[in-house]
């Protein structure tokens, strides 16, 4: 009796989940087929074809005229509905991540000659419960981003703002991803959830984004600001979810470089000089078919080299007095200084993805990405903090992910995801000898109280 009750509960849960079919990385298309008299039309063949890959998904309208096409990859599609004795109804659709689109279809009785009806269907998302904003592929590709940090795309969504890092820090505390401070709904940036292709992209040690990607590999970007579904979870603020690029039937690629140089900058009206800066971001992307209509690949390699100068503003008289005292007591650590100091970072991003559809019922996705960053004087320096107070940053992350989706019927689908992430982070201190010394309103120097920092993380997710 208990076993039967348990199975009934599980079956009901699975049925409700399929009925809702809220997807993290894909889209769903449903609809009702009717004739000119508004009567439902069962048995109509529904076909949807991806324009870029020529892959096809099929369904049949049930006794109520309803059809469901679930877990479709994002992209541009052509929808066709056919039944003997009726003209073919067609619609062009653009599916974005998380879309739950209901398409009304009307079939007209065929005359002696077949009539092709082309119409853009009115899109209704009656089943979508969360409040979300989607950044389209066109916006990702064309909007300028200073530094090309993909997380800055989240700022295009309403109710999202940037959290400030202290002083000149480019990296948040214990994080290797540049500028990961994003506040959603006015809540702390530590309360967000980051998702890439339906899998976790969180740094669980820092509660921040754990994966840095080139903007070139981001296809679509979604920010859920309220009402996130159970598929997301673990976030009391919001969810940042993105879908990566995949190959198509057309070989395509590009090489690029973006640069900034202080020679092209204007001087701040309140400054006495220009701030030294040299930044180069360059790379290439390429993708195409391995087996036409079935197997595709996409890859990207990108490097960033950023050199800049920041400033310590400790008063020269304080520098002289403190160094005299350190000499007098025989302090073995470095002496403090004021003025300019050099910083910056070098990063390397490598990304690869393969998509394979063995038949209309199964789909496999494989992904690999590498992120490597090195930054001298990365944190805790500037203003009244001496260089000896600072830390370097050295981090290497690898991630391997697989997604396998199998369709058993229009109402039974299984999606399996697995990911392995290997992260090695080190944050060595500049002063390995001295204690931490803080003189309020004057200077701070010596070993930072929470340093050195290092961690090794191996995470398996499934």
What does this structure look like?
The protein is mostly beta strands. The protein folds into two domains: 2-118, Immunoglobulins (Immunoglobulin-like), CATH 2.60.40; 131-461, TonB-dependent receptor, plug domain (Ferric Hydroxamate Uptake Protein, Chain A, domain 1). It has three helices and 27 strands. It has helices spanning 2-20, 137-142, 316-328; strands at residues 26-35, 45-50, 56-60, 66-73, 75-82, 89-95, 100-107, 117-118, 131-135, 160-162, 182-184, 193-196, 199-200, 202-203, 208-209, 218-226, 239-244, 252-261, 277-291, 295-312, 339-359, 362-379, 391-409, 412-427, 437-439, 443-445, 453-461. The strands form seven sheets. Strands 18-19-20-21-22-23-24-27 form an eight-stranded antiparallel sheet, with no helix packed on it. A hairpin with a 2-residue loop joins strand 23 and strand 24. Residues 1-21 have low confidence and may be disordered.
Keywords summarizing the entry:
mainly beta, Ferric Hydroxamate Uptake Protein, Chain A, domain 1, 27 strands, 3 helices, elongated, 5-stranded mixed beta sheet, Immunoglobulin-like, 8-stranded antiparallel beta sheet
Which class do the helix and strand fractions yield? mainly beta
Query: What quaternary form is this?
Result: single chain
Q: Roughly what fraction of the amino acids lie in strands?
A: over 45%
* Main beta-sheet annotation: 8 strands, antiparallel
| Anisotropy-based shape | elongated
Walk me through the topology.
Blueprint: H1 2-20, E1 26-35, E2 45-50, E3 56-60, E4 66-73, E5 75-82, E6 89-95, E7 100-107, E8 117-118, E9 131-135, H2 137-142, E10 160-162, E11 182-184, E12 193-196, E13 199-200, E14 202-203, E15 208-209, E16 218-226, E17 239-244, E18 252-261, E19 277-291, E20 295-312, H3 316-328, E21 339-359, E22 362-379, E23 391-409, E24 412-427, E25 437-439, E26 443-445, E27 453-461
Parallel strand pairs: 1-7, 6-8, 12-17
Antiparallel strand pairs: 1-4, 2-3, 2-5, 5-6, 9-16, 10-11, 12-13, 14-15, 16-17, 18-19, 19-20, 20-21, 21-22, 22-23, 23-24, 24-27, 25-26
């Amino acid at each position: 009796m208990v076993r039967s009750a348990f199975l009934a509960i599980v079956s009901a849960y699975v049925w409700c989940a399929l009925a809702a079919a809220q997807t993290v990385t894909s889209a769903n298309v449903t609809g009702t087929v009717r004739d000119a008299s508004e009567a439902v039309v069962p048995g109509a063949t529904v076909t949807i074809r991806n324009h870029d890959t020529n892959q096809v998904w099929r369904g049949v309208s049930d006794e109520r005229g309803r059809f469901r096409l679930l877990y479709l990859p994002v992209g541009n599609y052509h929808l066709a509905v056919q039944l003997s004795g009726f003209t073919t109804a067609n619609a062009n659709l653009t599916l974005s991540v998380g879309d739950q689109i209901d398409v009304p279809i009307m079939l007209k009785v065929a005359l002696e000659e077949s009539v092709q009806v082309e119409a853009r269907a009115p899109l209704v998302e009656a089943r979508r419960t969360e409040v979300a904003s989607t950044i389209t592929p066109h916006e990702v590709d064309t909007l300028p981003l200073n530094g090309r940090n993909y997380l800055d795309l989240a700022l295009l969504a309403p109710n999202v703002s940037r959290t400030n890092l202290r002083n000149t820090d480019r990296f948040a505390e214990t994080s290797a991803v540049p500028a990961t401070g994003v506040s959603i709904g006015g809540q702390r940036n530590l309360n967000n959830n980051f998702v890439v292709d339906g899998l976790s992209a969180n740094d669980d040690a820092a509660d921040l984004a754990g994966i840095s990607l080139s903007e070139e590999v981001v296809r679509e970007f979604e920010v859920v600001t309220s009402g996130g579904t159970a598929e997301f979870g673990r976030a009391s603020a919001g969810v940042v979810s993105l879908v990566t690029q995949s190959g198509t039937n057309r070989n395509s690629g590009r090489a690029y470089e973006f640069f900034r140089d202080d020679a092209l900058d204007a001087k701040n009206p309140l400054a006495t000089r220009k701030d030294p800066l040299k930044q180069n971001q360059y790379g290439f992307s390429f993708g195409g078919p391995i087996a036409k209509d079935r197997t595709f690949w996409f890859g990207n390699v990108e490097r960033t080299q950023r050199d800049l100068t920041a400033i310590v503003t400790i008063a020269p008289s304080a520098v002289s007095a403190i160094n005299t005292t350190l000499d007098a007591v025989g302090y073995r650590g470095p002496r403090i200084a004021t003025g300019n100091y050099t910083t910056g970072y070098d990063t390397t991003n490598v990304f690869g993805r393969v998509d394979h559809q063995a038949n209309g019922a199964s789909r496999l996705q494989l992904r690999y990405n590498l992120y490597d960053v090195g930054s001298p004087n990365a944190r805790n320096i500037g203003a009244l903090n001496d260089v000896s107070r600072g830390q370097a940053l050295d981090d290497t992350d690898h991630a391997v992910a697989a997604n396998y989706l199998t369709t058993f019927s229009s109402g039974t689908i299984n999606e399996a995801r697995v990911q392995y992430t290997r992260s090695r982070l080190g944050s060595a201190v500049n002063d390995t000898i001295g204690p931490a010394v803080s003189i309020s309103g004057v200077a701070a120097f010596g070993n930072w109280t929470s340093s050195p920092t290092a961690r090794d993380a191996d995470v398996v997710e499934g």
